[in-house]
Amino acid sequence: MKIKYLILFLAAPMLGKSQIRDNAGANGTEGAVSGFFETYNPVNYPAGAAGWWHLLDVRHTNINNNYAMQFSGSFYDQNLYFRKTDNSGSRPWLRVITEEAGIVRIPKLTIVNPGSSINAGNIGMTTGDFIIQANTGGRFADKGAQLEFAIPADQNGDNLWGQGRILTVAGSADNHNAIGKMIIGTRRMFNKIGTGPEWYYGDDLVIDGVGNIGVGTLLPKEKLSVNGKIRAHEIQVEASNWPDFVFEQKYPLMPLHELESYISKNGHLPQTPSAKEIDANGLSLGEMVKLQQQKIEELSLYIIKQEKRLNDQELRASQQLKLNEKLFDNILSLKKEIKKRR
């Protein structure tokens, strides 16, 4: 509302018929004067200006300079632009923040604390800042997107990065430019790529371009890659084809002598990965639990078979003992009968 009053106040002495003026950057010596103007061929208007545009120009009284305060806007939308020429007709235009139906529209926003700098490498963040940087491309001042919470630099000047940042970038082939990643960092680290005095974000949490999430790693290889320990009260792993098939009648249980031969030759159980494979590829928790369950069920079958064999042996031994006792009794009876006959 204050801007509207300001415009009316400044323009009041010049109210009247609109004039034609194509070049918003013209100097006073080129005939530029204060007033309301329109154009169909805008020159030195906001980037991308074409077709019919308005211009409000409030100029310095000395026609030999190019000091002016200007407002401009297209005939066809509600966007409004402002600039001060500062003796140069090519000064950039600033888009005025507008509100519509309670919504404030900010197409691009960069908030930088005085004394800070955002340069080509995003180096030199040495004071307390809250920064929103939104562009396209790689992780540079004119590329990528960044939301940062930084704290004041260390007294020795080492803390160039502060302690908190969120970056979404496309980047280059270098890891510190993080191709297609979103990085949530809480610390600054020394440049791993080169030997120069550069600092970059800590790779605390990374989401890459295909949705893989990395914790403590810049290059997640799975949907969740963690470079460190995980602590949890419980982990539930979804699994299919649970190895209850081991208990089916036709399951080919390997004979123990073949199992012994396999272990002697390979140094691990059948169907299970070797130590070398685990070192190279890691351990699949879900598959390993299934394999271990399969081996437990196979072991149960081995135990049951051994139990049956032991029971059979005990039964036979018991029967043989009874037979032996009966034979012994018969022998004793026979001896007694022979002795009587003598």
Write the layout of secondary structure elements.
Blueprint: H1 2-11, E1 19-20, E2 35-39, E3 53-59, E4 68-74, E5 81-84, E6 94-95, E7 98-100, E8 103-105, E9 129-134, E10 145-150, E11 164-169, E12 181-185, E13 188-190, E14 199-201, E15 205-207, E16 213-215, E17 224-226, H2 256-266, H3 275-281, H4 285-341
Parallel strand pairs: 1-2, 16-17
Antiparallel strand pairs: 2-3, 3-4, 4-5, 5-6, 7-8, 9-10, 10-11, 11-12, 12-15, 13-14, 15-16
Task: Explain what you see.
The chain is an alpha+beta fold. The protein has 4 helices and 17 strands. 25% of the residues lie in helices and 21% in strands. The protein has a 7-stranded mixed β-sheet with strand order 9-10-11-12-15-16-17, with no helix packed on it. A 6-stranded mixed β-sheet has the order 1-2-3-4-5-6, with no helix packed on it. A two-stranded antiparallel sheet has the order 7-8. It is rod-shaped and about 165 Å long.
